[in-house]
Structures are given as structure tokens and as C-alpha cells.
Amino acid sequence: MAALLAKGKFTPPGRTGMFGNLAFSHSLIHQIGGQDDTNRNTTQRMLLLLESQAINRMEAYERVIRGIIKRYLENGFRSFRLKVPRFLLNDVHRFWRTMCVDYASKYRERAGDGWAIRNVKLQMSRKLIFAAGLITCFSCDPDWVAERDAELARQPAVDGMVDYLVTFVHRTPLEIVSEVLLHHPEPDTAGTLLDIYDRFLAQLDDNTVREQLQRLAPDAAATDTKFSEIQRECRRFEEALEKIFFDENPRLARLTRKYGVF
Q1: What confidence score (pLDDT) does residue 6 get?
Q2: Best CA proximity match to 133, nearest among 97, 185, 182, 80
Q3: DSSP letters for 7-39
Q4: DSSP readout, 39-51?
Q5: Cα–Cα distance for residue pair 146/160, rounded to 1 Å
Q6: Does residue 165 form part of some domain?
Q7: Residue pLDDT, tens place only, 171-213
Q8: pLDDT tier at 56 (50, 70, 90 boundaries)?
Q9: How many domains does the chain divide into?
């Protein structure tokens, strides 16, 4: 794998070994929560659900995805009913908070090396993954299911809900968020969010900007024009997300209040 990445001139996986190594489905499916559910296991499981794509052996990929989702949905309950799956939702929250805490840990351990690009990614692409995870869970709300799959709403079942959630796994975070934005009551906010994210991707695709962020020292950040510009975009991105989840979309506002914190 390392040789293939080098040949394709891709950036190698992170130095922690989180990526670029084998992961085993038994741990991903059966060790959800508890002492054995390490940060690595949690991160690999959530990214498998939220940001993965099969490149080989599609049947094995599907089997693991379905096994994880079913584990979240069954959770030892005697009967199944349509509702936002708190077990899965809590893990989405835990994954986001883990990324935030790990950012601070890496900053300390690496003495600020590469901190700026990790900071920007946390505020943009990582936050978008979290937003997509929230939407995926919220989409299990009975009213939402009834709009997307009337038959499942009439005859709810675990296997049917697994099929329903697998359709989200097969889409990118940006596609999941964009579907909500297509029906957002304030198109200006939706457009702002997508425009900012498009500029963010363009910045990271610029080798000069990436290298500048990689080299930027913490004590130089306050006077770095490019970093200040990107930070302003990050704040506007967060403001747009807050409007979408808390203010302008009645359905998302209701679900965020009910499930987002408590």
C-alpha cells in the first residue's frame, strides 16, 4: 500500500498508524463502547460509515457496513420502532468530540508541527462530516422516513432501516448535506455554505497554500494573511451551519434541540 501511494504521489497516511493499516470487522462491529472501543476503533468505524468508499470486494464492504448499522439499531431492544437512533447518534457525537480533543493532543505532542492545516480541516471538512452524521441520524425520524420511504414507515423493521441507512453510507458527506440544502427555506444561507466549502477545497488543492499552512508556526499565525483569510471563512462556515441547524430549517431545529445535546 505504501508503495502504491508513493507511486501515485499521494500524501502518506498519518504518522499515528490510524490509516494505511488493516482493520478487523469483529472489533468494528462488536466493540462499540466500553474499554475495548479505543479511539482508533471508534474513528475507523465512524469513518467507514461516514466517509468510506469500497475499492475492492464490494460484498465484504457491504457485509461489514450492514453489520455495524444493525448493531447500532438492535442494541438489545425487545421491539423495533422508527426513531432517531440515539446509540448511533451518540457515537457520531463522540467521534466529533474525539477529533477535537485529538487535535489538541497532536498540537502538544508535535510541538505545533503542521497544526494550521489540521486546524482548518477540523473547522471545515471534519465539521462537514459531523453535520452529515447528524443528518443521517435525524433522517430516521418517523416523519422524515415517511417522506423518503412510505413502505418502511408503514412497516418498520430493523432490516428495512438498515437498507435505509446504507443509502446514506453510499453517499459522500457533501452529498448528504447538499440534499438538505436543496430544500432549505433560505437559499442564501445554503449558497453561502457551499460557496465557502468550494473555496476551502480550492485552497487545499493549491500546493502553495498547503505548504504554507504546513509550515506555519503558531506564533506567526496572527500576522499571516492567508491563514487569517481562511479563518474568516471558517467562522462564516460555522455561522451558516448554525443557521441551518438551529434557526432557519424548522425540522432540523426541532431535531437538533431534541437530540443535539441532551
Answers
A1: 73
A2: 97
A3: HTTPPPPPTTSSSSS---HHHHHH--SSTT--H
A4: HHHHHHHHHHHHH
A5: 13
A6: yes
A7: 999 999 999 999 999 999 999 999 999 999 999 999 999 999 9
A8: confident
A9: 1
Q: What is the mean pLDDT of residues 47-68?
A: 93
- The pLDDT assigned to 14 comes to 62
2 lies in a domain?
A: no
Residue 35 domain boundaries: 24-259
Sole residue written with cell 469483529 = 26
Please choose, from the candidates 144, 130, 91, the residue with its C-alpha nearest in 3D space to the C-alpha of residue 254.
144
Q: Cα–Cα distance between 158 and 82 in angstroms, integer?
A: 9
- Triad 99, 251, 249: Cα angle to 5°: 80
DSSP string covering the chain: -HHHHHHTTPPPPPTTSSSSS---HHHHHH--SSTT--HHHHHHHHHHHHH---SS-HHHHHHHHHHHHHHHHHTT-SS---S--HHHHHHHHHHHHHHHHHHHHHHHHTTTTTHHHHHHHHHTHHHHHHHHHHHHHHTTSHHHHHHH-HHHHHS--HHHHHHHHHHHHTS-HHHHHHHHHHT-S-HHHHHHHHHHHHHHHHHHT-HHHHHHHHH--GGGGGG-HHHHHHHHHHHHHHHHHHIIIIII-HHHHHHHHHHS--
Of 35, 221, 254, 249, give the one whose Cα is nearest residue 141.
254
Q: Which three cell numbers stand for residue 198?
A: 468550494
d(CA 97, CA 116): 19
Of 173, 178, 175, 148, residue with least CA distance to 160: 148
**Measured distance CA(143)–CA(252) in Å, rounded:** 12
pTM exceeds 0.70: yes
